[in-house]
């Protein structure tokens, strides 16, 4: 069975969809979704040979080689037009890498209506990408598992994505509206980290004042949200 993290990603894959799971490693997510009859098929993409072979092996072992194709490719280049992919999942990476993958071959998302993204860090950058590339956030989850905190962002194609404030982009509009225990834990930790960085840069006296001011503003915003 899936980790709580991947189960949360799976919760947002539409019934009957064709999925590309980019950075699939063992292909646990698409195999699980096929077993449960949620997806009809798709692609499991990997850029590194070892994980690609893990995916191939798992798909064959579970008897899904006809429905699910493992591809050794960088990011969205795993997606071909004939795959008829309508949903893309990218999980277990940093927000910067997820954003880079989505940006560098954006045209491969032509038929894609939904993105389910699980950044380990850097969710703000992912929200910024979605807002500026025609995807409307539909749902967000934050959860704690094995001492780590994970965010899951769900977005659908839209001609007019909502414009979010810096605060909404940082904390997540849905998470901010209904903060749970994992949200509070994450942002208490971030506040502490920011305080420590501020102490260091102030002691160093070589950091530009704008950079210090930006950190102070960020800390003030976190403290305000936690109140
Ligand atoms: N998605 C799985 C999960 O959430 O459990 C595996 C996450 S694993 C930490 C990240 C995987 O992404 C690695 O197997 C890595 O090789 C792959 N990866 C990193 N950059 C990639 C890229 N540009 N294209 C495809 N896969 C990539």
UniProtKB/TrEMBL annotation:
<dbReference type="InterPro" id="IPR029063">
    <property type="entry name" value="SAM-dependent_MTases_sf"/>
</dbReference>
<protein>
    <submittedName>
        <fullName>SAM-dependent methyltransferase</fullName>
    </submittedName>
</protein>
<dbReference type="Pfam" id="PF04816">
    <property type="entry name" value="TrmK"/>
</dbReference>
<keyword id="KW-0489">Methyltransferase</keyword>
<dbReference type="InterPro" id="IPR006901">
    <property type="entry name" value="TrmK"/>
</dbReference>
<keyword id="KW-0808">Transferase</keyword>
<dbReference type="GO" id="GO:0160105">
    <property type="term" value="F:tRNA (adenine(22)-N1)-methyltransferase activity"/>
</dbReference>
<dbReference type="GO" id="GO:0032259">
    <property type="term" value="P:methylation"/>
</dbReference>
